[in-house]
Amino acid sequence: MSRKVNKIVKLITGLLIMVLLLCQLFTFEKFSAVLTSAGISSSLSLPIAILLVIAELVSLPFLINMNMSKRISLMSRTAGFLSLGIMTVISFLAFVNGYAAVIFGATLKDVSGLVGVLMLAIMWLLLIIANIPTKKTAK
Questions:
Q1: What sign has the CA pseudo-torsion 62, 65, 66, 71?
Q2: Angle at 82 between CA 81 and CA 83, to 5 degrees
Q3: Domains in the chain: how many in total?
Q4: Which keywords fit this entry according to its UniProt record (predicted)?
Q5: Residue 98 CA: distances (Å) to CA of 22, 59, 79, 92, 114
Q6: Is residue 139 part of a domain?
Q7: 28 exposed, middle or buried (CB, 10 Å; 0-12, 13-18, 19+)?
Q8: pTM for the whole thing?
Q9: Is the model's pLDDT at 116 over the cut of 80?
Q10: Is 137 within a domain?
């Protein structure tokens, strides 16, 4: 895969994560209640919401191609997989329990749970493609 395609895929994934992050942060005070309504226990909903937001934020440097050390890049890549993993579990619980998509927080309330699951499937595909190493061309 070429570097240009890889950069475009990273940018699209980063933009999607930023949209979700902004939706969650606009109504963060209601986000834990939304998670509780989706089937997550009330004692875990706030820590999960905080962990999800932090993981999404930490994943952005890798996805927007910031110049950083290898350790920070690895941490950012790992945070990307962690954030999508948390979102997948939350969306699966909401879908199984018959609730609307909760990955958008309380900002978008009437989005079908299936839409959230399909969006996450697309984001997983993009994140996996973004983590495929590119060939370095000789100059």
A1: positive
A2: 95
A3: 1
A4: Membrane, Transmembrane, Transmembrane helix
A5: 24, 29, 28, 10, 10
A6: no
A7: middle
A8: 0.85
A9: no
A10: no
Any idea which residue has 């509780």 for tokens? 36
Residues 6+ apart with CB under 8 A from 20: 56, 87, 103, 104
Min mean pLDDT across 9-18, 46-55, 94-103 is at 94-103
Q: Is residue 51 part of a domain?
A: yes
C-beta separation of 9 from 21 below 8 A: no
DSSP code at position 133: P
How far are the Cα atoms of 37, 53, 78, 82 from residue 130, in angstroms, in the given order? 33, 21, 12, 15
Position with higher pLDDT, 24 vs 116? 24
- Structural domain including 54 reads 3-130
Query: For residue 94, what are its two tokens?
Result: 């909401």
Q: Is the pLDDT of residue 138 over 60?
A: no
Asked whether the predicted pLDDT for residue 38 surpasses 80, the reply is no
User: How far apart are alpha carbons 48 and 54 in whole angstroms?
Assistant: 10
In the predicted structure, residue 137 carries a pLDDT above the cut 60:
no
| Dist. CA 29–CA 77, nearest whole Å | 28
Report pLDDT for 54: 94
Q: What is the mean pLDDT of residues 107-123?
A: 77
